[in-house]
Amino acid sequence: MISIVIILILLACVALAFFILIQNPKGGGLTGSFGSMSSQVMGVKQSSDVMEKGTWGLIGAIAFLCIISVALFQKPEGGSKSNTATQSSTPAKKK
């Protein structure tokens, strides 16, 4: 189950990177390429809103999936023993 959540997190990260990379930091982006067609109802004028909502939605999804992955994480069997606890505690002998 945890592997499915991790795969979903990775897919959401790739989609988020796509949304971020197609946006222009100066406000142009996808909307600047098609400036003459701004009269469309669901055209380029609305694309910046869709990209912004998609960005925030993916950020929320990644945060939610990360919290779920922590809740699903199981400790390895063997309890809380560490590798140093299994080593002997006697000091080394001098020659």
Q: What are the SSEs and their pairings?
A:
Blueprint: H1 2-21, H2 29-33, H3 47-72
What does this structure look like?
Helix content is 54%, strand content 0%. The longest helix is centred in the middle third of the chain and has 26 residues, at 47-72. Helix 1 packs antiparallel against helix 3 (47-72). The chain is built from three helices and no strands. The N and C termini lie far apart (54 Å). It has 95 residues and is mostly helical. Residues 36-40 have low confidence and may be disordered.
Strand content: under 5%
Helix content: 40-55%
Q: How is the biggest beta sheet arranged? A: none
Question: How is the quaternary structure best described?
Answer: single chain
Order of helices and strands: HHH
Count of strand segments: 0
- The N- and C-terminal alpha carbons lie at a distance of 54 Å
Mean pLDDT: 76
* Poorly predicted tracts of residues: 36-40
Q: If you compute it from the alpha carbons, what radius of gyration comes out, rounded to the nearest whole angstrom?
A: 25 Å
Shape estimate? elongated
Individual helix count:
3
- Helix-and-strand structural type: mainly alpha
Keywords:
95 residues; 54% helix; elongated
Short description:
By secondary structure, the protein is mostly helical. Helices cover about 55% and strands about 0% of the residues. It has a domain of about 50 residues.
